[in-house]
DNA sequence: ACAAAATGATACAATTATAGTATCATATTA
DNA sequence: TAATATGATACTATAATTGTATCATTTTGT
């Protein structure tokens, strides 16, 4: 049972790395070398982050990826949504055939409460909050 | 992204149903009919709950399953552990090759905190707490 | 113009987890 | 001894996760 998949984990680490570097633009290969992730997989992840507006990309020599948004504005839920879809802790349904308690299902209610709290906490985790103290301003 | 799989969901509903009935012993087929779940799948789930000590089973006519433990003592985490293994929100590792921040990874720390809280809340959900008010004593 | 260095688009493949099915054996009861 | 129930277990299907690989396109520097 995982809440966070490797996709998301890699993406977060890549974002952190980019945010920490002095250079603005970091190439995919540099990330692969530094973070030791599977090349093709990371490349795909970077492309996705670009499409979703969290990274800017530039081609050619000296090109690569740079943050399109400040590190403080990228939350863990943002990244999770991109790579894992919407967060839902349970699929427990209201349908009569699925749950004998129908609209008044206490399990559903309790899970939903927990879900809300989890989402709130994940939302509070931003890229900059993950960076070591001292790097936070960036 | 799911926290609770269908296994667990079915198991919880079956336990609730058994806890609610006036008869102590409920046959698998009765559960299948009442809860409209796939027969073989539910049967396997019931067998597992029996092996794990949450249900007692009896064979032959009039046989079936009964709670082996009171509904207030079965928590959601118990059931989740059985069907989904240990709860871990992230696999984010401390290994040098996996995380550039190694032993001081703030992401890991933050996720672990959330994980602890989630587990505590899931632990607070028992079968009896899911049952409608009025049935709670059982 | 052209080669090198980078990303873009996209299709494919492997592995694992989830969800479900089916069958035969065994025990119990009437 | 037949009917009813679970036990053990092997098999299958589907979907999600985790990758891999290839060719196209853009940019830069010589």
TrEMBL record, chains A, B:
UniProt cross-references to InterPro entries, sorted A to Z: Tscrpt_reg_Rrf2 (IPR000944), WH-like_DNA-bd_sf (IPR036388), WH_DNA-bd_sf (IPR036390)
Output the Gene Ontology terms for molecular function: DNA-binding transcription factor activity
What Gene Ontology cellular component terms go with this record? cytosol
Q: What NCBIfam families does this protein map onto? A: rrf2_super
Please state what the protein is called: Rrf2 family transcriptional regulator
Query: What is the native source organism of this protein?
Result: Candidatus Sediminicultor quintus
């Amino acid at each position: 049972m995982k809440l966070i998949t490797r996709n998301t984990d890699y993406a977060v680490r890549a974002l952190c790395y980019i945010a920490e570097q002095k250079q603005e633009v970091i190439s995919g290969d540099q990330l692969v070398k530094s973070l030791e992730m599977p090349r093709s997989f990371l490349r795909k992840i970077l492309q996705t982050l670009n499409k979703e507006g969290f990274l800017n990309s530039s081609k050619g020599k000296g090109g690569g990826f740079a943050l399109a948004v400040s590190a403080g504005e990228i939350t863990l839920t943002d990244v999770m949504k991109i790579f894992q879809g919407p967060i839902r802790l349970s699929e427990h349904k209201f349908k009569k055939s699925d749950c004998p308690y129908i609209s008044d299902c206490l399990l559903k209610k309790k899970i939903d409460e927990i879900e809300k709290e989890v989402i709130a906490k994940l939302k509070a985790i931003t890229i900059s909050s993950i960076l070591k103290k001292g790097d936070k301003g960036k």
